[in-house]
């Protein structure tokens, strides 16, 4: 089951107020005008099918929706925003100011909503719990610009596109080092709405690439002509040191060695991976 959400007109905000909780948003009015109808209707549809009240669901739903629109650039579609992978990534990277217990609670609410809105056939599978170690801070704009500059000065088209793909997969999709080394162009789904990666291994899932990294990955796919490894065309697979070797043998290695390092067990977090996954 997949419900259809229609956005209310601004003048309808208090419609049915006597039967529903009236939420006062904590965000700029222009943002609430954009997302308020979606938030309101998803909460009202989901709440009766969960253990939570509308009052309990509103704050986290508003946070998720604002993050999805303002930061991730997703359209207001239930199947995107409430997909379990989106919910999990939002809980890790959109709620960095909260404690682990707070993030776990909000994720639980969103996962309950996902089951109610998407139906049991798309209900979230069991996922690893949030670990005690805190989230790593994302790179700032200057650091990202420096990494892109490093990628652009590699000494061949293959190395340049590989370096850009490394950044896109780490910063833009949050893949681990092993996942980056294993993903192929055949695992990429290109569309006008989003680029979606099919990730295998120990944690199989689908991941949406954050929009600001789409061009880099499209260029890599074009370079590979739709077939082969997204990172390092000449590899044979299974090389745990592939990223470290690549970074250490290329210009700027002393500055960007941390790209190939492991932190929290993944290259994505050593790149201080930014964001989001879905589909």
Walk me through this protein's architecture.
There is one protein chain. This protein is mainly alpha-helical and 279 residues long. The protein is 46% helix and 4% strand. It has helices spanning 29-46, 54-72, 78-81, 84-93, 100-118, 141-152, 157-171, 177-182, 214-223, 242-248, 253-256, 267-270; strands at residues 188-190, 195-199, 205-208. A three-stranded antiparallel beta sheet has the order 1-2-3, covered by helices on one side. A hairpin with a 4-residue loop joins strand 1 (188-190) and strand 2 (195-199). It is elongated. It starts with 28 loop residues before the first helix and ends in a 9-residue tail after the last helix.
